[in-house]
């Protein structure tokens, strides 16, 4: 979706410019768009008829650059993907949740410390994003980019509060490791 949308906005466009723009958005961090996969995705989208090559040119000894445009089929696919993400709630995959499901496998003190450390890391991420939001270069971004950043800050602040509450529960709740009616897991301190 990201590549189709970006090609549509900036067409005709070279793969290098698509890559550069997505990296400037830090899409590799929040949209799972890896820089090394962009050229492959452009070729695949072209094979599927969603994009078309407009021209290939080479300047001097530099590698050849292919320029892309979106096709009518690509516009329809982009709009379908966009609407799917706007109108449907998707469960985010978070490896932390898998680790948290084994909370009793770690000593109480380590679990609590890990939760507080996670809160500290999230606070640093909030400060970094807030600094980026107030930087001069952010003025050149569309207003909705700051809205996206605000969403991230709100999510992180909610998780910070949850981490702190849960760390306190781990520290103060007896039998926190034992679900109702279940046997205690082995080697729980």
Summarize the structure.
By secondary structure, the chain is mostly helical. It has eight helices and three strands, in the order αβαααββαααα.
Key phrases:
elongated, three-stranded antiparallel beta sheet, 189 residues, 59% helix, 8% strand, 3 strands, mainly alpha
Account of the protein in words:
By secondary structure, the protein is mainly alpha-helical. Helix content is 59%, strand content 8%. The protein contains eight helices and three strands, in the order αβαααββαααα. Helix 7 (108-134) runs antiparallel to helix 8. The radius of gyration is 23 Å and the shape is elongated. The model has no long low-confidence stretch (mean pLDDT 86).
Strand order of the largest sheet: 1-3-2
Mean pLDDT: 86
| Oligomerization status of the protein chains | single chain
Taken in chain order, the helices and strands follow as HEHHHEEHHHH
Taking all Cα atoms into account, the compactness measure Rg is: 23 Å
Main pleated sheet? 3 strands, antiparallel
Helix and strand content put the structural class at mainly alpha
Helical proportion?
A: 55-70%
SS element count, helices: 8
* Percentage beta strand: 5-15%
Q: What form results from the Cα inertia axes? A: elongated
Number of strands: 3
Distance between the termini: 48 Å
